[in-house]
Amino acid sequence: MKGLLLVLLCLLHQGLMYDHPDEVVWQNRNADIPYIANPDGTPYVISHRGACGQMPDHSSAAYATAYYDGTHFDEPDLQVTKDGVLFIMHNTCMKETTNIEKLHQFDDRRTDVKFSTNETELHCEDDYLVNDFTWQELIDAGLKVRNRFKTRSHYYDDLYPPMRLEDAIELMLDLNEKAPVKDRKFKTGLYIETKAVRFYKDERNVDIAQILYDTLEKYDLHTVEKATEKLPIFIESFEQDSLLYFKSKTDLPTVQLMTDSFEYDLDWISSYSNGVGPKHTFMFNYDGEEFNLDKPSRFIQQCHALDMRVHPWVFQDDILVYSEDAIDEAKIWETKGVDGYFTEFPHSTLNTLRYSEANRRKRLQSE
Amino acid sequence: MHQALTYDHPNPVIMKNRNTEVPYMKNPEGIPYVIAHRGASGQLPDHSAASYATAYYDGAHFNEPDLQVTKDGVLVVMHDECMKSSTNIEDLTQFADRRTNATVSTNETYFECINDFLVNDFTWQELVESGLKLRSRYKERGEFYNSLFAPMRLEDAIDFMLDLNDRSPRENRKFKTGLYIETKSVGFYKQERNVDIAKLLYEVLEKYDLETVEKAAKKLPIFIQSFEQDSLLYFKTKTNLPTVQLMWDEQEYDLEWVTSYANGAGPKHTMLFNYDDEEYNLYKPSRLIEKCHELGMQVHPYTLQDDKLVYASNEIDEMIIWEAKGIDGVFTEFPRSTLSILKHSHSNRILLSGTDQCTLVEDSCT
């Protein structure tokens, strides 16, 4: 009966890119993934683009600072170059977070791109597509990353080149080895996002999910068992196809990202995801609930009932939504019941979590 | 009664100014000042421009340079008189023959260089050309940024702060983000090396048009701090810039004497908990601070370090405890964190975790 239901669900959903069994076979479920939740019992701190509140987005500096700040994960977004190299950048085009406009040898490669699906939107205007360049070209030309917000520090702009996924993996392995974090059961890992999956597949004939899998395999990180020991890995995406691909190849935990412009079927999602990464608004307006700052989120409760962890995005100390200061804001998210934060200020978020934890312990002691 | 002083000074010292005439003496925001100790040195190498930049964007009210002097009289921003602990100088083999020992121990200050490289034995140009780089003094703060950033002269720090304030002004701030400058080893430089570091500092400030409160309030707020009273006395004979007497717990201080030449005190934090036979507690105002306030002095204790907490298990409780003592400012190595907590406690009257104890002095907590 369950199988039939899933078949029906499959038919209802978008034409999918990957052949997959009618019933997605779970190679694993959350109880079998040692690092699915923070063994401390407190929420995970996932550094969105690294500590990009202070350092350029996705620079090695952002990842290192986040590491020393005590983050549990750094969070690379993946694009692909012309020669199939996995390139860490949030945008599919390069103007916003690099110095590419200064590299005039590339003036003639400016282009426009528009690509929409029901899961994601891509819009580049007079911009430079990562996929139109080889990795070596960009490095040789002196491409450097910079912070995307005008109000954040620009001191480090144009100092750091972008990274390949391999560079990030090696950086994390190295940091964990040379400066292990005390009192941690697991190493500080990578929470990896595949972006523009269908664009790359349909328009450029590139299977980004497959390249990612191959890279993980090269580093011996493609199973939960290996990742648990070597470097914890999560796979996230707005595009379900890449998660389905992963679920057919490995038992690594997958996370479906959710934005408020689309409809989602949580039951269907739970058939291929170990967790969800919703925009934070989902915690406040789900299923007709009344807006409040002090009760657990219905959305999160529903996800937990479906055995999915919830990691909302994005927590930004300098762009607060529900309160006037970063500590109140973090506490509000905590009250909602989050299992992790995508944050751009990992040190700050950890402060609040440690304070909450101290409060909890003292209250338990006095009871 | 007091230490033999190096400077001739009028007796009694005439305070050219008092706190009401120093516009930036207190933080107009109503929360304690956040003074970034060696910059944002919790995350970046001590006294690097990067550390100062990060602290600036983190919202610190001041960056805090320590001064040493090179052989050719250049004011260099560095905490130690010798360079092993915060630079890569040991890797620069061309200097191997300049290793030396030096010790200073007075009732005001102490340093010890063992088989080390004294800043004052090098010219500035030598240091620059050698590829000298700064690094974090604590290994656990990370090595990622070690060997990237060169040391600064005071002039570089001043230029840098003027530039940052100009290009990226902080919103909703009455005053620019300033410099809280420490003269170190004043006696050592004067007696052993015949260099007057306070005078050199005054001249640099004058060169930048920052040597009076009026100019500093407009251009770049300046505090002058020292463990050694002489340098503060010197300044009080030359200018109306605010002076702060640093205090450590191995010395007795006559607060009435201190207030005759200092606008503020910078005590080690332990002195907020054990002054004048007070009973140790975590949430009552400090007797030392009360006394200083009576004498017209602001109090800025040192040093808050999120990764080396003293009174609590987490940063927020630690900051609440310090704040409850009645501080007017804090030297911190994690300015973003400290500022965030101060803003929060200011608006929330929050409780020390797990207790009913209200930590703010005036009102009762909700």
Automatic annotation (TrEMBL), chain A:
Q: What UniProt keywords are attached to this protein's entry?
A: Glycerol metabolism, Hydrolase, Signal
Q: Residue span of the signal peptide, if any?
A: 1-17
Q: Which GO terms describe its molecular function?
A: glycerophosphodiester phosphodiesterase activity
GP-PDE domain location: 43-353
- Give the Gene3D superfamilies listed for this entry: Phosphatidylinositol (PI) phosphodiesterase
Q: Into which family does the record put it?
A: Belongs to the glycerophosphoryl diester phosphodiesterase family.
Q: Which PANTHER family match?
A: GLYCEROPHOSPHODIESTER PHOSPHODIESTERASE GDPD5-RELATED, GLYCEROPHOSPHORYL DIESTER PHOSPHODIESTERASE
Q: What is this protein called?
A: glycerophosphodiester phosphodiesterase
- State the organism named in the record: Euplotes crassus
TrEMBL record, chain B:
Q: Which GO terms describe its molecular function?
A: glycerophosphodiester phosphodiesterase activity
Reply yes or no: does the keyword Signal apply: yes
Task: Give the EC number(s) listed in the UniProt record.
Answer: 3.1.4.46
Outline the extent of the GP-PDE domain.
32-342
SUPFAM superfamilies in the record: PLC-like phosphodiesterases (SSF51695)
Cite the InterPro entries for this sequence.
Answer: GP_PDE_dom (IPR030395), PLC-like_Pdiesterase_TIM-brl (IPR017946)
- Biological process GO annotation list? glycerol metabolic process; lipid metabolic process
Catalysed reaction per UniProt? a sn-glycero-3-phosphodiester + H2O = an alcohol + sn-glycerol 3-phosphate + H(+)
* Keyword annotations: Glycerol metabolism, Hydrolase, Signal
Tell me the Pfam families matching this sequence.
GDPD
Q: EC class of this enzyme?
A: hydrolase
Spell out the PROSITE patterns in the cross-references. GP_PDE
Family the UniProt entry places it in: Belongs to the glycerophosphoryl diester phosphodiesterase family.
Q: What's the name of the protein?
A: glycerophosphodiester phosphodiesterase
Question: Per the UniProt entry, what species is this protein from, by scientific name?
Answer: Euplotes crassus
